[in-house]
Amino acid sequence: MNKEIMGSLAWGVGIVVLALAATGARKLGYIDGDMVNRIVLGATGLMVAAFGNRIPKTFTPSAGARKAQRVAAWSMVISGLIYAGLWAFAPFQTAVIGGCAAILIGMAVTFGYCLMLKNRAKAAG
Questions:
Q1: Element spanning 34, H or E
Q2: Helix (H, G, I), strand (E, B) or coil at 29
Q3: pTM for this predicted structure
Q4: 86 within 8 A of 99, measured Cβ to Cβ
């Protein structure tokens, strides 16, 4: 199995183990259900940031694709960290709305930049 797949599987298994541990802690009375949600969703935001951090490390043959990779990486890292931060510190409703908005804005920035690169390439040639 290649290194990227192993890293992705490790994140997935790690979040499942974290969720099971948090559920066990809730059943023992150490934390409440709200904290379980915050722990698991905060870890999900950190996972998004980690995947964004790995994007520029992959090989891409063209300069335009590398530009798109850099923007995608930055937008994923920033939106993932905002998502995790909101789940760590914001009220529940704010974390839901703000976290989803952060991820959607990160995706929109990436998609918009790719469309801009495509339109520039069409205009140039």
A1: helix 33-54
A2: coil
A3: 0.89
A4: yes
Tokens 């914001």, residue located: 90
Side chain identity at residue 108, one-letter code? A
Span between the terminal Cα atoms of the chain, in Å: 41
Token digits for 11?
Answer: 């994140």
Give me the DSSP letters along 46-103: HHHHHHHHHGGGS--SSHHHHHHHHHHHHHHHHHHHHHHHHHHHS-HHHHHHHHHHHH
| Nearest residue to 75 (alpha-carbon basis) of 97, 37, 108 | 108
- Class of residue 121 by CB neighbours under 10 A (exposed 0-12, middle 13-18, buried 19+): exposed
The 10s digit of each residue's pLDDT in 71-104 is 999 999 999 999 999 999 999 999 999 999 999 9
Give the separation between CA 94 and CA 34, rounded to whole angstroms: 14
Q: How far is CA 73 from CA 22, 35, 49, 76, 112, in A?
A: 30, 29, 8, 5, 14
Q: What is the C-alpha to C-alpha distance for residues 117 and 67, in angstroms, rounded to an integer?
A: 9
